[in-house]
Amino acid sequence: MNVRRLIPRTALAGAVALGIVSLSACAGSSDAADKGGDGKLDVVASFYPMQFLAERIGGGHVAVNTLTKPGVEPHDLELKPKQIGELGDADVVLYLKGIQPAVDEAIAQAGVKNTVDAATLTKLEKHGNEVGHDHEGEEAGHDHASEAGADPHVWLDPVKYAEVAEGVGSALQKADPDHAADYRKNTEALKKELGDLDTAFETGLRNTATKTFITTHSAFGYLAERYGLEQEGITGIDPESEPSPARIKELQDIAEKDKVSTVFFETLASDKTAKTLAKDTGLRTDVLDPLEGITDRSEGDDYLAVMRSNLAALKTALGAK
């Protein structure tokens, strides 16, 4: 089984310590220098869903630095001392506890004060194997959810993502009250767009030939629950791991019973597992992007555009009428 790379705690602790030392060495710098000298609010985002919110709500008043660069699988992120230093220097740190253990531990050990945990801005839920995560077979120490075992993929539900956006907007207003009115305006505009996206999903998936979809990465539990669908994950959390023969047989039966047409894979992982299952079941493959990271896309291909692409893929796969 191909498990994701984990950062040894000793190595991470050393990196955190080195990052703190580097911060101490820069203690004499001014606040303006810490902000790059442009007077903007310095925001560090842990991965793309947080970056998108910071950029859309912050607008021209913020300088956003993202720990997870385009094309990098966020679970595999290894923090460098410089990045840990950026955490300590930031005016605001946006992250989602449970997605990236390396980030969670760095924030905890570095004692970063101005942090916003998106997991606290909406209600997290537990999802079973049919809609959420199957944690069986995961390597010990890889907690890809909250400590309570909740599914962290709230951004794939436009309604929950709007709740997170509201909290992020409030945090930016508190950190930079001089521009609070702009942050409020941008937050409301984004919530309106997310509301339109929710309506598009609701109407687009209301009447379909089947409600079941199969995906390598069980990231779409909130989306499935929101729109009355049923997600079947091949192996659970790791899209590159090999499904067991028993799971393949189970999915073959589900595909036949529920008239499934498509096996979905994601952009930042191999399509090997999806193609293997599709070949065994006579199904086709397509992309359903969990938006945990962003690739080097063309300009304008942001969260909203990718989510609409996801909607189009689901409508085709489910036989929307």
What does this structure look like?
The protein is of the alpha/beta class and 321 residues long. Helix content is 44%, strand content 10%. It has 11 helices and 8 strands. It has helices at residues 9-25, 31-34, 48-58, 81-89, 101-110, 158-175, 180-204, 221-226, 245-258, 272-281, 303-318, and strands at residues 41-45, 62-66, 92-95, 115-117, 212-215, 230-233, 262-265, 284-287. A 4-stranded parallel β-sheet has the order 2-1-3-4, with helices on both faces. Helix 10 links the parallel strand 7 and strand 8. The longest helix is centred in the middle third of the chain and has 25 residues, at 180-204.
Nutshell version of this structure?
By secondary structure, this protein is an alpha/beta fold.
